[in-house]
Automatic annotation (TrEMBL):
Record protein name field: Phosphatidylinositol phosphate synthase
GO biological process: one example: phospholipid biosynthetic process
Subunit composition and interactions: Homodimer.
Cofactor(s) needed for function: Mg(2+)
EC annotation from Swiss-Prot or TrEMBL: 2.7.8.-
Species: Cryptosporangium arvum DSM 44712
Membrane topology field: Multi-pass membrane protein
Localization, UniProt: Cell membrane
Keywords assigned by UniProt, alphabetized: Cell membrane, Lipid biosynthesis, Lipid metabolism, Magnesium, Membrane, Metal-binding, Phospholipid biosynthesis, Phospholipid metabolism, Transferase, Transmembrane, Transmembrane helix
Amino acid sequence: MLSQARDRIQRVTGPIGTALVRTGLTPDAMTLIGTTGVVLSSIFLVVPGHVLAGGLAITFFALTDMLDGAMARARGWSSRWGAFLDSTCDRLADASIFAAAAYWLFREDRDSAGIAALLCLITGVLVSYAKARAEGLGLTANVGIAERTERLVLVGLGGVLEVLGVPGGIEWILWLLTALAAFTVGQRVHAVWTQTKDDRVRPDRRLDTGPVPPPNGYTESPVTE
């Protein structure tokens, strides 16, 4: 959803990216700086329960996720390695946030919120994997109401409610985020299902007549788990 505002965001991050490139900093370095900052903030601030400090630190370092792309555009070229590194680091950063939140919540005997945090971690991974796997098959699954930016915004909102002392605020936010992420997975599965309708063969013959040959243009491949 927020990805639709990408042009406006790029107008803000573009000049910053240009300035950073002039310092000699690379987009890959910015990716690693941001991810390291998020992971360390999660471990040393969120886990002990310093929600306000942890939230501010994570927000600051998460902004670098936009700056590495702005730097690549300012430089005039990007690489497949950079895209791979950015995506992998995003998963690591997201997992560290929710794992740290779950640890803190369970330690505070807030089991329902802790379970919600773990489910956020799982569904968040599925959201990203569904898109990556679709693209690996030459398809698209760039749909969903809760992409990464939306999920981080909601996590930040949950932290604000916790700091303000709203009873059950962060718990409700985490459960809402779990539901939205699960729905997004469903949207992406449906998108891939729609694009692969022609791949599914429905023979009129009996099932015991042998395997169905692959459609034209396809080759048989072993099934792997």
